[in-house]
Design brief:
The complex is a heterotrimer of chains A (85), B (32) and C (115).
Chain A (H helix, E strand, L loop, with lengths): L1 H22 L6 H55 L1
Chain B lengths: L1 H30 L1
Chain C lengths: L1 H32 L9 H53 L9 H10 L1
Classes of the chains: A mainly alpha (85), B mainly alpha (32), C mainly alpha (115).
Chain lengths: 85, 32, 115
């Protein structure tokens, strides 16, 4: 319902603010700073993996188009044989 | 973790790509 | 009743803008207290990038799932058509007493593969 959606919307905002409050002083602690930079490195790695994944999906979508074209031509040929019969 | 999930999905996508490419080849041979 | 509804609506709008302002102030504080140094991002930016990566992963998951389902359907359609067509051609060849064209080794292999 609309009210539930409104609640979810407000709760998500509150969650975001809580997260920011948690990390508010993160930058001051040198030890946590290294953790932060490690997380930054991980994000770069994951983004690279997602780029590769996106390429694979694009390739799959291309293959889908070829498979569909093949399917359509097979349907035509089946009709030809049926007509022949 | 998110990284593991992405890696798993990437492996799956690669496997399916390989399968669909060989399927396409096979179907074309049979059609001809 | 109408007035009550308007009042509630105003309260929600006020809460919404307060939350936005809170978030803005916190992010601004992190940015000013911990500006980006060379190669290092501050926690606020990292947090945003994390949520961006998660939503990108979710979007790619959905896209991949859609492509997979479509592909399975098209493949089964191709298999069914190939089967029907080959069976009908063999029937035709029998009817016209034509010599049945035997499948080559390669064709046998791919037939198995498609099965």
């Amino acid at each position: 319902s609309d009210l539930e959606q409104l609640c979810t919307y407000v709760n998500e905002k509150i969650e975001n603010i809580k997260k920011i409050l948690l990390i508010r002083n993160l930058g001051q602690d040198p030890a946590l700073k290294t953790t932060l930079s490690k997380i930054g490195d991980e994000i770069i790695t994951i983004n690279e993996l997602l780029n590769k994944l996106e390429l694979e999906i694009q390739y799959q979508e291309q293959t889908n188009i070829s498979l569909k074209e093949l399917c359509e031509s097979l349907e035509e040929e089946f009709k030809d044989v049926e007509h022949l019969k | 973790t998110l990284k593991d999930n992405v890696n798993a999905l990437l492996d799956k996508a690669r496997l399916e790509s390989h399968e669909s490419t060989s399927f396409l080849k096979a179907a074309k041979i049979l059609r001809n | 009743m109408e007035a009550e509804v308007d009042k509630l609506e105003l309260m929600f709008q006020k809460a919404d803008s307060d939350l936005d302002y809170l978030q803005y102030r916190l992010e601004y504080e992190i940015k000013t207290n911990h500006p980006h140094s060379a190669g290092e991002k501050n926690a606020g930016t990292i947090l945003k990038e994390l949520s961006a990566i998660k939503s990108r992963y979710q979007a790619l998951c959905a896209r991949f799932k859609e492509v997979s389902v479509e592909q399975k359907e098209t493949k089964s359609c191709i298999c069914a058509l190939l089967n029907k067509t080959m069976t009908m051609i063999q029937d035709l060849q029998k009817q016209t007493n034509l010599e049945l064209t035997l499948l080559t080794e390669e064709e046998k292999a791919v037939t198995e593969q498609l099965k």
